[in-house]
Amino acid sequence: MSEIISIKDIDLAKKKVFIRCDFNVPQDDFLNITDDRRIRSAIPTIRYCLDNGCSVILSSHLGRPDAISSKFSLEPIAKRLSRLMSKEILMAKDVVGEDAKKKAQNLQAGEILMLENLRFERGEIKNDEALAREFAALAEIYINDAFGVCHRAHASVEAITRFFEIKAAGFLLLKEIKFANNLLKHPARPFVAVVGGSKVSGKLQALINLLPKVDKLIIGGGMAFTFLKAQGFDIGDSLLEENLIDEAQAILSRAKELGVKIYLPVDVAVARTCTSEALMSYVPTQEIPNGFMGLDIGPASGKLFREVLADAQTIWWNGPMGVFEIEKFAKGSLKMAHFIGDSNATTIIGGGDTADVVARSGEADEMTFISTGGGASLELIEGKELPGVKPLRGDGERL
Ligand code: AMP
User: Fold this and answer.
1) Which residue, judged by its Cα, is nearest atom 15 of ligand 1?
2) What is the pLDDT of residues 239-256, one digit of tens each?
3) Active-site residue among 38, 103, 167, 331?
4) Domain final residue, candidates 143, 171, 199
5) Number of separate domains in the chain
């Protein structure tokens, strides 16, 4: 497979550059941005283009709008980016309409234009070629730095690459792929993977791909219960994927053959309902009462997992240990974030919920790398080629 063309491989000098970013950030009811990590992560590529005398057109989606609405406007993003970069950013009133076209045409070297939410155009999620052609008419060079959407074939990610002769990956995208590649190809050992979250089905392929590569595997969260069931435990009303019990059993057997050690929770926080009012108690995994469900790992599991992580040189974590959205079931996930943050290992955190837990724990700065894309990072770990990355391969810089 040829290497991904890096932004550093192409001649950018004084060109008009279209950058696909991932500015899909969380906002509160008043549209205040509650976590601007994705905006900050985009800055190195933008600055590099400006330093090369380019003018820059930024594009992103935000949320899932069904129609054009101020609630989904990228204006707050442009304001935040402008503050972070101490630089004026022009805002287009549309995506490829009159206003965007005019502003893009008049854009001068050193200036930045932000297009409106890409999903205001229906063709975006349909990977529409006509829309992609309109994007391409705005600029001379295409840079993809939107790792979080590279697993989706959307017009600004995939179809667009057919209409730009010069295209490359931005610094964030390259960094994301480099970390995933190094993790899979040359991890420092012992390599421990920590997986959690709701379902085995969502992470099955990643587990299968990781199993021959890791030394130890910690399984927590809702998905642990299908494994516990496969081992013959009574799991009460805990989350279960009945159709995957055999698959879970096969993973446990395969791990044994490979000499990979698997660790499951030895105690759990149980409650009758998954609500903040529910009465919660800790029980050994063997003693989950009927009518109760396991919603977090317990304190003994926390201690066990800390021991397991103690000698790790590489840790990959994807998926919370419990229902961390509810405070009383967040302890296991927060503890895990502290253990990983305190470790001397290279620590790589999957995006999405896991990144949220790490941010809440205050450990974000302690991690080696936090991915900006939940789904995309999981697909890389599954060993898949992302549709947004494939067209960027050429004879460029080796990753
Ligand atoms: P995923 O998207 O598969 O990584 O799952 C993340 C979700 O898993 C979060 O919303 C958690 O609330 C949920 N989760 C974690 N542990 C449990 C559990 N024991 N029971 C039910 N849901 C859980």
Assistant:
1) 322
2) 999 999 999 999 999 999
3) 38
4) 171
5) 2
**Tens of pLDDT, residues 56-92:** 999 999 999 999 999 999 999 999 999 999 999 999 9
Task: Check which CATH number belongs to the domain holding 233 and give it.
Answer: 3.40.50.1260
- Contacts (Cβ under 8 Å, ≥6 apart) of 395: 2, 3, 5
User: What is the CB-side half-sphere exposure of residue 288 using CA atoms within 13 A?
Assistant: 28
The answer to whether residues 144 and 203 belong to one domain is: no
DSSP lists the bridge partners of residue 168 as: 143
User: What's the gap between Cα 68 and its chain centre?
Assistant: 26
**pTM for the model:** 0.92
Pocket of ligand 1 (CB under 6 A): 196-199, 202, 221-222, 239, 294-295, 319-320, 322-323, 325, 353
In a domain, 56, yes or no: yes
Same domain? For 186 and 166 the reply is no
Domain coverage including residue 164: 7-171
Distance CA 362, CA 286 (A): 33
